Amino acid sequence: MNISIKPSPLSGKLKAIQSKSDAHRVLICAAVSQEPSSLLLENRSQDIRATIASLEALGAKIESSPDGRLDIKPVWGNEAKSPFVDCGESGSTLRFILPLAGAVSGDFKITAGGRLPYRPINPLIQALNINGLAFSREKVPLSVSGKLKSGHFLLPGHVSSQFVSGLLLTLPLLEGDSQIFLSSPLESAAYVDMTLKTLRDFGVEIERKAMTYFIKGSQIYRAPKNISIEGDWSNAAFWLAAGALGGKVTLEGLAENSLQSDKFILEILEKMGADIGLEKGLVSAQAGRLTSINFDAAQAPDLVPVVAALMAVAEGTSLIKNAGRLRLKESDRLKAMAQGLKNLGARVEVGGDYLKIVGKKSLKGGRVKGFNDHRIVMALAVLATKCEGNLEIEGAGAVKKSYPEFFEDFELLGGKVNVL
């Protein structure tokens, strides 16, 4: 889908969609719990559908009700033999399901699409291989044999926090005790904190000391009576940025005490000069005089596209650093944002792990590529409010990966979108 956006300020009120990151974790814990459970899951993005389908492939029974609820019967007693697991383009699904399938089903086949087969997975495969699983190759699609055993797991902390989360979700199910050792400091640490919180909610306890996690085996997952999914700070960041760029946007359904790392968008917007409001469960952002900042992306890499968009129209020279991992996402996000912003008339310098952006009062508009990356599309879309001419986005349908209703909500806030 190619679209054209006519410049206009975005303003109004939206309900934040449910957190994709939270939903992945809750779905997995529910699928390995002792008893059936039910949860309201209104937002079914492509990534969430991939996790649901993967859990069903392992033996879980997941049925949808007309009211948006999912009824989940755990895998136990219905474990699939030699299942085929398709993770779609969801990195979380692949990295979370890979160890789980090794514990639940043993022999299985697993595949993925898009750029996902080329994104890092080898450190996780090596750790699983040492503990009972044999792999046909070092990247998906692959066949896996054996059964995952408890033991010692060594992982780098700077490549993907999802490796750690995947093991934390699975190792408590194994008979023996396990330990996860990190060979380098953990980046995107808040996502691991989210995993630990979800596990606690399901009655599973894990001890952490410095760069080591201690996991007792044979733990029983018990779903809480009222399972809820948090509002999503990652996608809320685009609407809050839109408010900072021209109107006033208010969101409801975001937890101020959330462990989601992308809540950091509030601090970024305040530093840049936006007016932030927090009142009675509502979060708002409205335009101010935006000025340059330096942003270390190590702990919140998913914010890079939207922060780069803000920097393009902020006064002064801004820097995003420690962003090398962004080259291995759904697209090379440093290259994608640099090219998109340049096409709109911004001044951008891109390096191996950084973006340097000299802000301008407005951009000229023009045609940009979405690079099959939902965050690139959404970041460029909200920047249309600062363009002098129309902004056209090739491949805007990539938003279905995490936020299928993005452009519907965009229009609710006053955006003017035409499908080309």
Strand order of the largest sheet: 21-22-1-23
CATH superfamily of the largest domain: Enolpyruvate transferase domain
* Global morphology: globular
Contiguous runs where pLDDT drops below 50 for at least 5 residues: none
Task: Provide a count of the helices.
Answer: 12
Helicity range: 25-40%
According to CATH, the fold-level topology of the largest domain is: UDP-n-acetylglucosamine1-carboxyvinyl-transferase, Chain
Radius of gyration based on Cα positions: 21 Å
Q: Which architecture of the largest domain per CATH? A: Alpha-beta prism
CATH class of the largest domain: Alpha Beta
Beta-strand content: 15-25%
Provide the number of structural domains.
Answer: 2
Tell me the distance between the termini: 8 Å
Describe this structure in words.
With 420 residues, the protein is α+β, with helices and mostly antiparallel strands. The protein has twelve helices and 23 strands. It has two domains: 3-17 and 230-419, Enolpyruvate transferase domain (UDP-n-acetylglucosamine1-carboxyvinyl-transferase, Chain); 20-215, UDP-n-acetylglucosamine1-carboxyvinyl-transferase, Chain, CATH 3.65.10. It has a four-stranded mixed sheet. Strands 2-14-16-15 form a four-stranded mixed sheet. Helix 1 (20-31) runs parallel beside helix 3 (91-104) and helix 9 runs parallel beside helix 10 (333-343). The chain starts with a strand and ends with a strand. The model has no long low-confidence stretch (mean pLDDT 96).
